[in-house]
Write a structure and sequence with these properties.
Elements: H1 2-26, E1 27-33, H2 50-59, E2 64-67, E3 72-75, E4 78-85, E5 88-93, H3 107-119, H4 124-133, E6 134-141, E7 144-149, H5 156-159, H6 168-171, H7 176-181, E8 189-195, E9 198-203, E10 214-221, H8 225-233, E11 239-240, H9 248-254, E12 257-263, E13 266-272, H10 282-290, H11 294-301, E14 306-308, H12 331-340, E15 361-367, H13 378-391, E16 395-401, H14 403-412, E17 418-424, H15 432-435, H16 452-463, H17 467-484, E18 487-500, E19 503-504, E20 521-522
Parallel strand pairs: 1-10, 15-16, 15-17
Antiparallel strand pairs: 2-3, 4-5, 5-7, 6-7, 8-9, 9-10, 11-18, 12-18, 13-17, 13-18, 14-18, 19-20
Helix pairs in contact: 3-4, 10-12, 16-17
Pfam family, one: SBP_bac_5
InterPro entries: Peptide/Ni-bd, SBP_5, SBP_5_dom
GO molecular function: peptide transmembrane transporter activity
Length: about 525
């Protein structure tokens, strides 16, 4: 009799566990984005766009990852650091990690990945960053790898956290073409379907970490913002990653979704190209800042959902200096600055000229202005800027470009006067590529900014082990940059995601978004 009861109890436990497993497999998350997905190969893209990074975070994993809740780097594929010296680190890798095709992950894959990222990577910025960092990589055993650095490294977790590890056995030789559409990683989800209509991910049953309720994720492209919101409100989709500020109320009033605010770690700016002699004049740059009412723009077009900034760091960023305040809106002061710089309206047409009769005129490049559905307010921001610059005597001519043309004009040929840019930062929030003079000819220092005092402080910052000293140095850097005005620092926007009420315990990574999706839960309503 006892044996019979025991058998029934065991059967009941098995049925319950099986039902829970089936429920986990059946939970589906559906979402859309406006951007077309790029190649599903981390090192076969010229740049990593935000929507692509979100996809990569489902498929691949790095050695280390940043936890925004704990505000520190955590282990991902790395298990522990065995040796840490200023120019060397030995890492033990996690046990029992498998690729999506069932093969074992090992140190060979780590070596192969970094070698590929440094030498055969289409992303020049990442290639250069790694080449300047790593002297050598040595495989010590199947689960141990040694990195030797060219310079002292204060935090190896941070320096090695942005590289997605890829499988050597799938990419050796010339297998990249197949991998672009059929990638495998060690991440919580694997690609089960990939076609022109979208991508479907299914949970990887042998994942070494935790996966809870979401067994499938479906990502489709819908270019039009109104269509994406209609899909969300009609329950055709479950998630909208970035709700425009002017649509937050509409979604909230329907009561069908949770709105999840998250720090964007991005800043909205207008870059000055120092190669233009007129923009090389600080009075002109300051006049354009004081002549542009950024506070009204933020309140009018983004419902005040953000913060004005006076420098390159957001209030939530490490080492933010609260004493760096945005310059006030003072059009009269702006006109005086231009007059002091020798500009006047010599032919009474409302625009200023220099002593040689050259009009104070600038071209401003903007990306996808007519189709920028992620930020429908951008058109209004640009028009306000044109109008307010006209008010102080400056003519602005708009050049609307596609993503690829914008990238070529701004980051490669530097063929622009002004550029409307939203600058995104990773968890390290390293601003040196934007302002360090040795970066003038790199991808990111698009303004051509150079200041010896800033260079010296960056060098001291990188070499310092003292947090208080680093805080003092970075505060000083922010103050100098704010005085020099290489950009119009406009604002940092608050982001909001909208997700169906069926989903709870939703934790969002501000950069990769889905980094903690394996903790999300699903309930029946």
């Amino acid at each position: 009799m006892k044996k019979s009861y025991l058998s029934k109890a065991l059967l009941l436990i098995i049925l319950v566990v099986s039902a829970q497993s089936l429920f986990a497999q059946q939970g589906t998350l559906r979402y859309t984005e406006d951007a077309q997905f790029a190649r599903l190969h981390p090192y076969d893209n010229a740049s990593e766009r935000a929507n692509t990074a979100r996809i990569f975070s489902l498929i691949f994993e790095p050695l280390f990852t940043y936890d925004y809740n704990l505000e520190q780097f955590e282990y991902a594929l790395a298990k522990e650091i065995l040796v840490q010296q200023p120019r060397k680190v030995v890492i033990r890798l996690k046990d029992n990690v498998k690729w999506h095709d069932g093969k074992n992950f090992s140190a060979d894959d780590v070596y192969f990945t970094f070698d590929k990222a440094m030498n055969f990577n289409r992303n020049e910025a990442v290639r250069n960053r790694l080449s300047g960092l790593i002297e050598n990589i040595n495989i010590l055993s199947d689960d141990q790898v040694e990195f030797v650095f060219k310079e002292d490294v204060r935090d190896p977790k941070a320096e090695l956290s942005f590289i997605w590890i890829v499988p050597k056995h799938r990419l050796e030789g010339d297998n990249a073409t197949d991998f672009i559409r059929n990638p495998i990683g060690t991440g919580p989800y694997r690609v089960s379907e990939f076609n022109m209509s979208g991508i479907t991910f299914e949970h990887f049953p042998d994942y070494h970490g935790t996966i809870r309720d979401i067994g499938k994720i479906v990502r489709r492209q819908t270019i039009d913002l109104d269509a994406r919101i209609t899909e969300l409100l009609s329950n055709a989709t479950d998630l909208l990653i970035n709700v425009p500020a002017n649509r937050v109320r509409q979604i909230a009033e329907r009561g069908m979704h949770n709105l999840i605010p998250y720090q964007s770690f991005s800043i909205s700016t207008i870059a000055f190209n120092y190669s233009n002699s007129m923009l090389g004049n600080r009075n002109v740059r300051e006049a354009m800042v004081r002549g542009f009412n950024r506070e009204r723009v933020l309140n009018t077009w983004y419902n005040g959902r953000g913060s004005l900034i006076g420098g390159p760091l957001t209030p939530g960023a490490p080492f933010f200096n609260p004493n760096v305040q945005p310059l006030p809106y003072e059009p009269a002061r702006a006109r005086q600055l231009l007059a002091d710089a020798g500009f006047s309206d010599r032919n009474n047409d409302g625009f200023l000229q220099d002593a040689n009769g050259n009009r104070l005129r600038f071209s401003m490049v903007v990306r996808d202005l007519g189709a920028n559905t992620n930020d429908p307010s951008l058109r209004n921001v640009v028009q306000d800027f044109i109008d307010e610059m006209r008010n102080i005597g400056i003519e602005i001519q708009i050049v609307n470009l596609t993503y690829d043309d914008f990238r070529q004009r701004v980051f490669e040929s530097r063929d622009f006067d002004l550029a409307v840019m939203e600058i995104f930062f990773d968890p390290t929030y390293d601003i040196s590529p934007l302002f360090f003079s040795r970066s003038v000819f790199s991808e990111f220092n698009v303004t051509g900014y150079s200041n010896r005092a800033v260079d010296a402080r960056f060098e001291s910052f990188f070499n310092s082990e003292s947090r208080s000293e680093r805080m003092e140095l970075m505060s000083s850097i922010q103050e100098i940059i704010a005085r020099d005005i290489p950009y119009i620092f406009m604002f940092t926007l608050e982001r909001n995601a909208a997700i169906n009420l069926r989903f709870y315990n939703v934790r969002v990574d501000p950069f990769y978004f889905f980094n903690e999706v394996n903790y999300w839960r699903v309930q029946d309503l």
